[in-house]
Amino acid sequence: MQNYMWSGKKVRLRPILAADWEKFHQNDLDSEGARHCDAIYFPRSEEGTQAWAAGQAANASASDNVMLAIETLDGELVGSMSTSSCDRRQGTFKYGVAIFRGHWRSGYASDAIWILLRYYFEELRYQKVTAHVYAFNEGSVALHEGLGFVQEGRLRNMVFTMGQHFDEFIFGLTKGEYENWKL
Hints:
Elements: E1 11-14, H1 21-28, H2 31-37, H3 46-58, E2 67-72, E3 77-87, E4 92-99, H4 108-122, E5 128-134, H5 138-146, E6 150-161, E7 164-174, H6 175-181
Parallel strand pairs: 4-5
Antiparallel strand pairs: 1-2, 2-3, 3-4, 5-7, 6-7
Protein backbone atom coordinates (compact mmCIF):
# COMPACT_ATOMS: atom_id res chain seq x y z
CA MET A 1 0.00 0.00 0.00
CA GLN A 2 2.88 2.33 -0.75
CA ASN A 3 0.69 4.63 -2.87
CA TYR A 4 -2.24 4.71 -0.44
CA MET A 5 -3.11 8.35 0.39
CA TRP A 6 -3.92 7.57 4.02
CA SER A 7 -0.63 5.81 4.77
CA GLY A 8 2.66 7.34 5.87
CA LYS A 9 6.07 6.04 6.92
CA LYS A 10 4.90 4.83 10.35
CA VAL A 11 1.11 5.05 10.51
CA ARG A 12 -2.08 5.10 8.51
CA LEU A 13 -5.33 6.91 9.16
CA ARG A 14 -8.60 5.01 9.09
CA PRO A 15 -12.16 5.28 10.36
CA ILE A 16 -12.79 4.48 14.00
CA LEU A 17 -14.23 0.97 14.30
CA ALA A 18 -16.73 -0.25 16.88
CA ALA A 19 -14.08 -2.82 17.89
CA ASP A 20 -11.72 0.03 18.90
CA TRP A 21 -13.79 0.80 22.00
CA GLU A 22 -11.55 -1.01 24.50
CA LYS A 23 -8.37 0.88 23.52
CA PHE A 24 -10.23 4.19 23.72
CA HIS A 25 -11.73 3.19 27.08
CA GLN A 26 -8.27 2.38 28.46
CA ASN A 27 -6.99 5.69 27.12
CA ASP A 28 -9.85 7.49 28.92
CA LEU A 29 -8.32 6.27 32.19
CA ASP A 30 -5.15 8.32 31.52
CA SER A 31 -6.12 11.64 33.09
CA GLU A 32 -2.77 13.29 32.37
CA GLY A 33 -3.00 12.32 28.70
CA ALA A 34 -6.58 13.61 28.56
CA ARG A 35 -5.45 16.90 30.10
CA HIS A 36 -2.80 17.35 27.38
CA CYS A 37 -5.20 16.62 24.52
CA ASP A 38 -8.43 18.20 25.65
CA ALA A 39 -9.82 17.95 29.18
CA ILE A 40 -10.53 15.48 31.94
CA TYR A 41 -14.18 14.47 31.68
CA PHE A 42 -16.51 12.56 33.99
CA PRO A 43 -15.93 8.79 33.94
CA ARG A 44 -17.65 6.83 31.18
CA SER A 45 -18.83 3.24 31.48
CA GLU A 46 -17.60 0.50 29.20
CA GLU A 47 -21.05 0.45 27.65
CA GLY A 48 -20.81 4.20 27.08
CA THR A 49 -17.46 3.85 25.35
CA GLN A 50 -18.82 0.97 23.24
CA ALA A 51 -21.77 3.15 22.19
CA TRP A 52 -19.41 6.05 21.39
CA ALA A 53 -17.17 3.85 19.22
CA ALA A 54 -20.18 2.34 17.46
CA GLY A 55 -21.49 5.84 16.80
CA GLN A 56 -18.15 6.95 15.39
CA ALA A 57 -18.00 3.84 13.19
CA ALA A 58 -21.47 4.53 11.82
CA ASN A 59 -20.82 8.25 11.31
CA ALA A 60 -20.47 9.07 7.64
CA SER A 61 -19.14 12.63 7.62
CA ALA A 62 -21.08 14.93 5.34
CA SER A 63 -18.39 17.61 5.60
CA ASP A 64 -14.62 17.84 5.87
CA ASN A 65 -14.88 17.66 9.68
CA VAL A 66 -13.83 14.13 10.50
CA MET A 67 -12.47 11.95 13.31
CA LEU A 68 -10.00 9.24 12.36
CA ALA A 69 -8.09 6.48 14.12
CA ILE A 70 -4.30 6.39 13.92
CA GLU A 71 -2.83 2.92 13.63
CA THR A 72 0.68 1.67 13.00
CA LEU A 73 1.44 0.01 9.69
CA ASP A 74 1.22 -3.27 11.65
CA GLY A 75 -2.39 -2.47 12.57
CA GLU A 76 -2.01 -1.38 16.22
CA LEU A 77 -4.33 1.46 17.26
CA VAL A 78 -2.15 4.23 18.76
CA GLY A 79 -4.40 7.30 18.81
CA SER A 80 -6.83 9.50 16.95
CA MET A 81 -7.08 12.83 15.19
CA SER A 82 -9.90 15.07 14.12
CA THR A 83 -10.51 18.09 11.96
CA SER A 84 -12.87 20.93 12.79
CA SER A 85 -13.87 24.40 11.63
CA CYS A 86 -13.31 23.32 8.03
CA ASP A 87 -14.13 26.32 5.86
CA ARG A 88 -13.85 25.57 2.14
CA ARG A 89 -14.57 29.15 1.17
CA GLN A 90 -11.61 30.50 3.15
CA GLY A 91 -9.57 27.34 2.70
CA THR A 92 -8.86 26.97 6.41
CA PHE A 93 -9.26 24.20 8.97
CA LYS A 94 -8.18 23.14 12.45
CA TYR A 95 -7.11 19.76 13.71
CA GLY A 96 -6.26 17.96 16.90
CA VAL A 97 -4.18 14.86 17.44
CA ALA A 98 -4.03 12.49 20.42
CA ILE A 99 -1.54 9.64 20.78
CA PHE A 100 -2.02 7.06 23.54
CA ARG A 101 0.63 7.54 26.23
CA GLY A 102 2.50 4.29 25.59
CA HIS A 103 3.24 5.54 22.07
CA TRP A 104 4.33 9.12 22.78
CA ARG A 105 7.53 10.30 21.09
CA SER A 106 7.49 7.52 18.51
CA GLY A 107 6.96 9.80 15.50
CA TYR A 108 3.34 8.70 15.09
CA ALA A 109 1.80 12.16 15.62
CA SER A 110 4.05 13.89 13.08
CA ASP A 111 3.46 11.16 10.50
CA ALA A 112 -0.32 11.34 11.04
CA ILE A 113 -0.26 15.14 10.76
CA TRP A 114 1.60 15.01 7.44
CA ILE A 115 -0.84 12.45 6.05
CA LEU A 116 -3.74 14.73 7.00
CA LEU A 117 -2.05 17.86 5.63
CA ARG A 118 -1.21 16.10 2.38
CA TYR A 119 -4.88 15.26 1.86
CA TYR A 120 -6.31 18.63 2.87
CA PHE A 121 -3.70 20.70 1.00
CA GLU A 122 -3.20 18.54 -2.10
CA GLU A 123 -6.67 17.04 -2.60
CA LEU A 124 -9.20 19.40 -1.02
CA ARG A 125 -7.50 22.74 -1.87
CA TYR A 126 -7.22 24.01 1.68
CA GLN A 127 -4.49 26.63 2.10
CA LYS A 128 -4.09 27.05 5.88
CA VAL A 129 -4.23 24.87 8.97
CA THR A 130 -4.38 25.93 12.61
CA ALA A 131 -3.62 23.94 15.76
CA HIS A 132 -4.40 25.08 19.30
CA VAL A 133 -1.85 23.83 21.84
CA TYR A 134 -1.93 24.21 25.61
CA ALA A 135 1.15 26.05 26.87
CA PHE A 136 1.92 23.33 29.43
CA ASN A 137 2.00 20.65 26.69
CA GLU A 138 5.69 21.02 25.89
CA GLY A 139 5.73 17.91 23.70
CA SER A 140 3.02 19.30 21.41
CA VAL A 141 4.70 22.71 21.27
CA ALA A 142 7.97 21.06 20.19
CA LEU A 143 6.13 18.83 17.70
CA HIS A 144 4.48 21.75 15.93
CA GLU A 145 7.60 23.88 15.90
CA GLY A 146 9.54 20.91 14.50
CA LEU A 147 6.99 20.51 11.71
CA GLY A 148 7.45 24.14 10.67
CA PHE A 149 4.31 25.57 12.23
CA VAL A 150 4.52 29.23 13.25
CA GLN A 151 3.19 30.39 16.60
CA GLU A 152 0.68 33.02 15.53
CA GLY A 153 -0.84 33.88 18.84
CA ARG A 154 -1.26 33.30 22.53
CA LEU A 155 -4.61 33.27 24.26
CA ARG A 156 -3.91 34.11 27.87
CA ASN A 157 -5.51 32.10 30.70
CA MET A 158 -7.69 30.06 28.32
CA VAL A 159 -7.35 26.62 29.87
CA PHE A 160 -8.14 25.72 33.48
CA THR A 161 -6.61 22.51 34.81
CA MET A 162 -4.46 21.38 37.72
CA GLY A 163 -6.03 24.18 39.80
CA GLN A 164 -4.78 27.04 37.65
CA HIS A 165 -5.19 28.81 34.33
CA PHE A 166 -2.80 28.30 31.41
CA ASP A 167 -2.26 30.01 28.09
CA GLU A 168 -3.19 28.42 24.78
CA PHE A 169 -0.89 28.84 21.78
CA ILE A 170 -2.20 29.09 18.25
CA PHE A 171 0.06 27.53 15.64
CA GLY A 172 -0.51 27.93 11.92
CA LEU A 173 0.92 26.49 8.73
CA THR A 174 0.14 27.65 5.21
CA LYS A 175 0.18 25.45 2.15
CA GLY A 176 3.28 27.31 0.93
CA GLU A 177 5.09 26.55 4.20
CA TYR A 178 3.95 22.93 3.93
CA GLU A 179 5.36 22.75 0.39
CA ASN A 180 8.71 24.05 1.66
CA TRP A 181 8.84 21.47 4.47
CA LYS A 182 7.76 18.37 2.59
CA LEU A 183 10.39 16.47 0.66
